[in-house]
Structures are given as C-alpha cells and as structure tokens.
Amino acid sequence: MNKLQNLLDNNRRWASEIKERQPKFFEILSKQQSPEYLWIGCSDSRVPANEIVNLLPGELFVHRNVANVVVHTDLNCLSVIQYAVDVLHVKHIIVCGHYGCGGVRAALEKNRFGLIDNWLRHIQDVQQQYSSIVESAGTIEKQVDRLCELNVIEQVRNVCETTIIQDAWARGASLNVHGWIYGLSDGLIRDLNITMNGGEEINSIYSLAIQNVRERT
Question: How far, in Å, CA of 76 to CA of 73, rounded?
Fold first, then answer.
C-alpha cells in the first residue's frame, strides 16, 4: 500500500478547490510564469513562502536553503537569482529568515552535524563579526534571534554584491532587495529596514540596519 496516498489525496482536493474558484487557473498558469517577487528563504518546513504572504502558485519565485544563506560560490542560488532577474524580470528580491532558526542556533552553539557544518560556517562568520551584539542580547534564545536578524542583513548585502544584481542596476533595472524576518510564534513578518535599489548605497544602508539591531540590544 502506498503510504503517501494521503498526500496524493490532499493534492486532488487542493486542485479541485482551486478549479472550483477559478476554472481556468491551471490552464493559464501552465502557459506563463510572471512573478514580481523572488523569495530567498530557509528550508524550514514551518516557513512556507507562498502561504505566509498569501500568494498563489505563479506569484512567487522561490529559492530555499538551510538558514537562507547567499554564498557567491553557490551556483544553485546564483542561477535562481539570475533567472529571476534576467528572464522573469522580478521587481523585488526578499531575503526572509525566521526567528528560532535551527541552522542559526547550530552555528551559534557550534554543534556538529556533519557536512552541513561547512555551510553553517558562513553564519559563524557573521556571529564572530558581530559577537558583541549577539552576546548582549541575553538568553541563548534571544542570541539566536539576534543572530537570525544579523544573518538576514548579511545575506541581503551578499545578494546586492553579486554581479547579477550589480549588472541589473547598471543597466537601469527597477529592482529592490529587502530583508525580512518571520516569527514562528505569531506568524508575522517583520521588516528589518534594509531595502536596497542601487549599488552606490549598499554600505550605508547595511551599516544603518546593523546599527538598528545594535540599538535594540
């Protein structure tokens, strides 16, 4: 017996409900993809990108990895960004972390899990750079949350410093990069007040966002 039959049944109910509301939804969706947003988020199963911003399939282009990290050697992530910007012509890129991130906590506590330790090293770099901000947050839970915020801010800058985004801005593309964080305990997204739409302002906006986090500690 197929132990995943419940998922197949769920899929059929979901598709049926959508077709009842919009009979031609899938017909139209299959012929085009024109999202205005690229979402770079965490792989955590508790943070479903489309659902928490109440968007339908086709309205949000999504890339997810452990702890929403953007690394300049990650061809997977860079390919997603390049396709979103150069082919889909998205207007907004959203880096969205979440409080209580397990990857961030593992990096902070220097837990060892194997291969993923190399990936989390990027977050440890952020923690070491801003150790005073993290440590002054208080309890380990608050330190994790503070590092989650700092990690989002860092990844926004990493996105903006890719050749993909730099080239897009150089040719006059209307493209904004944002940093958000999601609360697992209340389902709300908070704007971390870091939005960039041009290469000349990266450092100043980044520094201001870090200062905002510092002042909350």
Answer: 9
Instruction: Look up residue 3 and give its DSSP letter.
Output: T
Q: Which residue has the tokens 């889909």?
A: 88
pTM reported for the whole predicted model:
0.93
**What confidence score (pLDDT) does residue 169 get?**
97
Q: Estimate to the nearest angstrom the gap between the alpha carbon of 146 and the chain centroid.
A: 16
Shortest CA distance to 98 belongs to which of 51, 37, 44, 176? 44
Q: How far is C-alpha 147 from the chain's CA centre?
A: 15
Write out the catalytic residue numbers.
42, 44, 46, 98, 101
Q: Which helix (H) or strand (E) holds 207?
A: helix 202-216
- Reduced to 3 states, what is the DSSP secondary structure of residue 91? coil
Contact present, 181 and 190 (Cβ < 8 Å): yes
Residue 2 has pLDDT above 90, yes or no: no
- Average pLDDT of the segment spanning 56-76: 96
Give per-residue pLDDT as tens, 178-191. 999 999 999 999 99
Helix ranges, 130-195 (H): 131-135, 140-160, 163-170
Average pLDDT over residues 100-124: 96
